[in-house]
């Protein structure tokens, strides 16, 4: 489905400015703090390339990958340095890296368990033992009993080159699919008709994410709600991670282990004759 900001990367950077490269600095801090074994980094879901370019400037050998051709073209022209390639994060084979970085909830575009398995299996193939996976995303646990992001549509505006763009965004939780669904209506001051867009993120819970990572051969080094590049207050150099994981953002650092771990398989429950198991 077409998306105003994805299809027009310059609008994306105007709507979400990051002049201080906060997300890229946070990712680089994670790589240094947890000891990425080498300089090769894959930024999967790289968008406009701002974070990939920052990691490149920090001395990394960076490949930025995205599914949007418009984003990749913009990245090559405005944030040079990394190699930019088209790839689907739900299943990719782009070579070997020392770290995989996945920011701004890109991981949550894996809507199904099979798509999540595809992402994590691809990351494992791409990393050596000791390689790092660094991710930042919305936190599914935040929506357990909290409705402040769901109760009222959010209205935001920004102006670029004399045109004001206004978005009205409604979120709701699709519990059966475990998705946070978004409907966004754009209006522009240039007289163009309103445009409606729909998208969704998978809601992952901290313990669910730990289990998925373990099944794919990753050891969780850090999993916390803040501070991070999208939290309030935002992360600053030297900030230690929190000991909690119930805020609206989730930050992950995991290390590929040296041993494969067999996928979890539930054993059938055996009911002995003469005994009855009560239903909950």
From TrEMBL:
Residues 252-268 have a biased composition (Basic residues). Residues 41-131 form the Methyltransferase domain. Keywords: Methyltransferase, S-adenosyl-L-methionine, Transferase. It comes from the Bacteria. InterPro entries: Methyltransf_25 (IPR041698), SAM-dependent_MTases_sf (IPR029063). Gene3D superfamilies: CAC2371-like domains, Vaccinia Virus protein VP39. Residues 231-280 are annotated as: Disordered. One of its GO terms (biological process) is methylation. One of its GO terms (molecular function) is methyltransferase activity. This is Class I SAM-dependent methyltransferase.
